[in-house]
Structures are given as structure tokens and as C-alpha cells.
Amino acid sequence: MKNNKSTCEKGLTSFSRRNFLIGSGLLFAGSVLKVNGAGLLDDPEPIIDIHQHTDFSGRTQEQLIAHQRKMGITTTVLLPAGRPLNYGSTYYGVANGLQVKATGNEVCYKLAQQYPKEYRFGANEVPDFPGAIQEIEKYLKLGAPVIGELKFGVECDSPGMQKIYQLAQAYDVPVLMHWQYNMFNRGFERFYKMLEKYPKVNFLAHSQTWWANIGKEHKDENVLYPKGKVVAGGLTDQLLRNYSNVYGDLSGFSGLYAMTRDEDHARGFLERHQDKLLYGSDCSDIFGSGEGCTGAQAIAAIRRFSATKEIERKILFSNAKKLLRL
């Protein structure tokens, strides 16, 4: 998924390089993580990252793996792009690769097969492509725990999207959706109808329009990053409160900004929805630390704004483990 202010990237190609990165890149939050076997991070406080991409903005797989280890991530879910198509739903190719050059199902699957203790793979396809359901189902049968990231120029209640929801229901996996006003998954104001129509489907919501609507002061949907204090009770807040089958993906600059723009609100929001929020990075940075890494900043923000250790562990680990059955 694309965020103009997010960064992060890709994998290990040689034995010597891999060992160097393990030795130098695992220091996080003042503790050294122990590497066990094929890269399993035996961390007493594991972290699940539900939102990463292969070949994100040109990042190599080597850089991705180093980045995730530097952040202290123990399990990463790789979200594939749909196939490159010259369709209206991809804005005639402009949004191919989720607009960040991310690669598709097979690349994510193969990396997860190479590092099975650290990576899982999602399943995705352009929803109005004639073979979309068959393509997604292929990877669900291989063990994908999630469908997405669904980031296409379609109505959220279009026939193609509803077929995907029906498939998610059949396989009992969540769908992860990128909400961006008048661009991706159009019709946010009608989203509640899909939550009601498919009550057995768990929806993971993400990106600008989702996080802009945490506050009821938000009136102009063209503003993707509203500034200032948040007045609790916006549409996103209401959906999380009123529907058991919707969850918030805190990844990217949009998720980080939603927390940091009003720290007092963030503390109450995380406490209020502690069972409905999941950590993701969605970060194309190559370092895994510092001001350029939204993923590392989000981890720090969750730790800072969580009222209790229990809330922190839910958001960084146990909510994802339960929802995705990892």
C-alpha cells in the first residue's frame, strides 16, 4: 500500500551477508534478540507485523528481511499485489503493484516458504479480473491467512469485491482493505452495509480515509491527514464500537499519524479498542529504525500510548495471532 510519508524494504542473498545482518541488526529497544535455527527470533515479547510487501518501492528481499529483524518483528505477513493490468480498477496501470511496485502472490509465497518461521503470505488479485476468485483461492488453499491488501479503484460493495467477501467467509479468513477517498475502495460511508451483510467476515481496515475518520470533527473527506485535536466518536470509532467484525490496521504513516496527532486521544482510543487494533508497518524503509521508519515509530507509539502492558501486547501480538490464527 502506498503512503507518501512511509518507507521500508527486501531480503538476504548470501550466507555471509545474512550472518552479518543477524549479528548487527537485532538490537531493538535495548535488548538483544536470540536467533534460533532458520532465522526464528526467539523473543520473549514477540511482535506480529500484519502489513508488509515484497519489492516495496524497489527494496530488495535482503533489505526487507534485515529491516524486519532490526525492528524486532518475529512474524511478518506479506501482502501481495494483484497482477499488473491495464484496467479501470488499476487506473489503467497507474496503481499496479499497489502503486509502490510491490510484487504478487508467487513472490510472497516463495519468500514465506524460504523463511517459514518468520514469514506468512497473503492472497490477492484485482477484483474485476475474470480469474480473481480462482487466483485468490489457490493461495488460500496453500495456507494464506488473509486476503489483501485490497487496494483497487472499485466501489467497496461492487460485485467483484462481494465475491471476495464471500470467498473470505468460505475460508474463514479476514480481508484487509485500503481506504482512500475517491480512489481506493470507494464508498466508505456505505461500508457498514457490508459489515452487516457479511457478519461472519472479519474486515481489517487501513489507510488514510479510515484513520482520518477517528474523530467526529472530520468533515471534509478530501483531507486525508486532518490536523489538530481529535474529538472522539468519528465514523471509524463508531464502526469499531458497533461492529464485532471490523478491526483497525495501524500500519503506515496514516496509522502512526492517527496516534501521534493527539496523544491524549490516542491513549483512550487504544484502551477503548484494545481488542480490535493490530500492528502493521507498511514501511518501505531499509533501516528498521530512525525517523524514516514508520514501522519502528509505530511500535514505539503503541508502547507509549498503551495504558497497560496487556494492551500493548494485544496490539503488537495477540490480536493478530488470534485473528489470523498464526
UniProtKB/TrEMBL annotation:
Q: What is a GO molecular function of this protein?
A: hydrolase activity
User: What are the protein's UniProt keywords?
Assistant: Hydrolase
The residue ranges of the Amidohydrolase-related domain are 48-326
Matches recorded under SUPFAM superfamilies: Metallo-dependent hydrolases (SSF51556)
Is Flavoprotein among the key words of this record? no
User: What name appears for this protein in its UniProt entry?
Assistant: Amidohydrolase 2
Q: Which organism is it from?
A: Pedobacter heparinus (strain ATCC 13125 / DSM 2366 / CIP 104194 / JCM 7457 / NBRC 12017 / NCIMB 9290 / NRRL B-14731 / HIM 762-3)
- Please spell out the taxonomic lineage of the organism that makes this protein: Bacteria, Pseudomonadati, Bacteroidota, Sphingobacteriia, Sphingobacteriales
